[in-house]
Amino acid sequence: MAQSKLAEGLIIVAASYENDGCPIQALHCYQALVNQVLPPDVEVKARLNLARLMLEHTFNVKEACNHLLRAQSQSRSLIGCYCIKYEVADRLATAQQLLGDEAGELATYAAAAELWQSAQGSGEWAAVCVWACRLLQRQAAAHHRAGRPREAEAAAGQALAFAERAGGGAAAAQQRVTALLLQAQLALDRWDDAAADAAIKQLNGVLGAAAAAAAADSGGGGGGAGGGGGGGVLGPTGFLTALLHYNVLQVLYMLRAGKVVEVVKDDKPPQQPPLSPEEADAPGVPPPPQVANLDATWKQLAAAQSGASSSAAAAAAPYELPGMCLEPLVCLVAALALRPGGGRPRLTEAYLQRGLAAVEQLKRRAGLADGDGGGGGADEEGLAPQRLAPAGTALRLQLMLLQCRAQGLLARGELAAAREEVLRAQALCERHPRLLGPQLPAAHLLTGQYCAATGEHAAAAAHFQAARQHAPNHAAAAVASVLEAAAHLSMDDAMQAAAAAAAGPHHHPGQAAAAGPGPGLARAIEALGPFYAGAVAAPGSAPPRLGGLEDSAAALASAACLAQQGDLPAANTLLSKALRTAHRRLGHMQLVCGVLNDLALSFLSPQLLDSHSALEAARSATAFARAAGDLWAEARSKRAVAAVMQREGGAAAAAGNTVEADKSAAAAREAVEAAARREARVAESVAAAKADSGRHGYAAGWRLSAMVQG
């Protein structure tokens, strides 16, 4: 009797301490409680609460796992108590995940999957369905982390089925929404457009119904998935969290499908004249509606969460949708949508800077040391298990933001500033090899782009090869393959330019073509591999599925290889296809300029001799390159204009039309001078980047010796 009274007193005191915000004192009470001889149900609850406090407020994950294993063993003797059993399994899986015990985590999910069968018909059935849905979502996430997409898809489908069987209520509604979000996320990751589209359509209906219910409860008007309101059964915070994730996934899906123009289009009236690039990017001009909607939803969510307790937010967080990393994610998605067009660099830079500032806050929350080793944080080796996941999320976001910023600077020719961002990305990977190991291919890709911009084509090809060989998916492999092929072809161009310079002013441009393709062509075709348009697929193999950007880039690179082999009709067909996608759907100005410049050179070839089409392509490339601030593309287009005018002038002189010949010669000289001015600016930018030979050499040669030794 005395022992029973002692146990009851410890339970009351522990609950009081926890309610008063003293979790460590509550933990000590539960520690004393589990040392007593207790009935099985009391012991299970005590060990569950003790482990929960350990996981939330200490770094003693192994001891928490031991308590949960003991609680799981004791719970088998309980009749009913299904929710307690599921909660034990949920906490145990968390501890096992933190300890890196994948086999134990999956075994926990398998054991929990047997509970619902005996719970059918009980009074806890609706709650059991909610718990089963949550654990199946976590199981799907575990399979996804381990690279098992089919198992992840199956578990996510089962989770949605349980959410449907759970009936009404806030918990069931939230689990259904998160199960659909998970399905959409997994579908995007495995490039299953049909499944992603179906999940996003279902989400639109569910969130629209929640918004309409909330509006009806408050007496307001209806709303769709983009509306606000109280969120109905989801509650305001739950609704906004789901809505923001839905909007992020929808924008990513549109970018993947090549609908970039739809994401960044403005909602101005059709009769209003378009703004100039300077006017469109002026301060005070609002972002495109899709981007502005993302940002507005995040701000609403941040305001709603400011009054919620952190423990309540953590308890309600679905499988892997942490709320604290949403601001840098929103900024990254906005920058990814805006950067291809190149028309709003100020707004893009503002999103990137804001995202990087938010990431620094995430790193401090995760306990990471600052870049200079100060700030009182820890290196990745010293991080507690609970902090590894948020630290990895923050670092991956930081690396992607740095990559996006560096690529924007490279496109604008600001090579010295781009070099510093490349060095920051490299240093980040060096400081966190465990957490950022899978991101090394992306860092090599960025380094290769810097090398290509500064004329280090051999180093660029080596970095792109490393990115291609270790690419995590077909899309990343395609981008790396295209860039590697371009680097090999650029080495041939550099050799031909050097030969032309050595030959002096009597060198004729056609001599290089007569000499045939250089050694880089074979390497370029090898680098493209299955993405080369002329490649023969292996028997029984399907061509790799690519997005609009990757498909257009592969077509551009394949066309360059085909043109070098003299197959201009096939090359032009590919270029026309790439132009339609790059201009009408992607709005990717760099890609458009590359296609137009190649088309101009193709039309100038002896096989076609279509000066009018060549001039139109070159002038269009000049306009797009100027709008995007791409000096390289603008210089190439000016050279193409000069070549057209020289040909036109020669034809006019041969026909005795001296007026047209002089006019064409003057236009050619003007184009050559304009190209020379832009090439001089590029040379100045390259010289500025190489002025600090130590920093440039380190950036360009990063990990090259390790690749050679490997």
Automatic annotation (TrEMBL):
<dbReference type="Pfam" id="PF10345">
    <property type="entry name" value="Cohesin_load"/>
</dbReference>
<protein>
    <submittedName>
        <fullName>Uncharacterized protein</fullName>
    </submittedName>
</protein>
<keyword id="KW-0132">Cell division</keyword>
<feature type="region of interest" description="Disordered">
    <location>
        <begin position="266"/>
        <end position="292"/>
    </location>
</feature>
<dbReference type="InterPro" id="IPR019440">
    <property type="entry name" value="MAU2"/>
</dbReference>
<dbReference type="InterPro" id="IPR019734">
    <property type="entry name" value="TPR_rpt"/>
</dbReference>
<dbReference type="GO" id="GO:0007059">
    <property type="term" value="P:chromosome segregation"/>
</dbReference>
<keyword id="KW-0131">Cell cycle</keyword>
<dbReference type="GO" id="GO:0051301">
    <property type="term" value="P:cell division"/>
</dbReference>
<comment type="similarity">
    <text>Belongs to the SCC4/mau-2 family.</text>
</comment>
<dbReference type="GO" id="GO:0005634">
    <property type="term" value="C:nucleus"/>
</dbReference>
<keyword id="KW-0539">Nucleus</keyword>
<dbReference type="GO" id="GO:0007064">
    <property type="term" value="P:mitotic sister chromatid cohesion"/>
</dbReference>
<keyword id="KW-0498">Mitosis</keyword>
<keyword id="KW-0159">Chromosome partition</keyword>
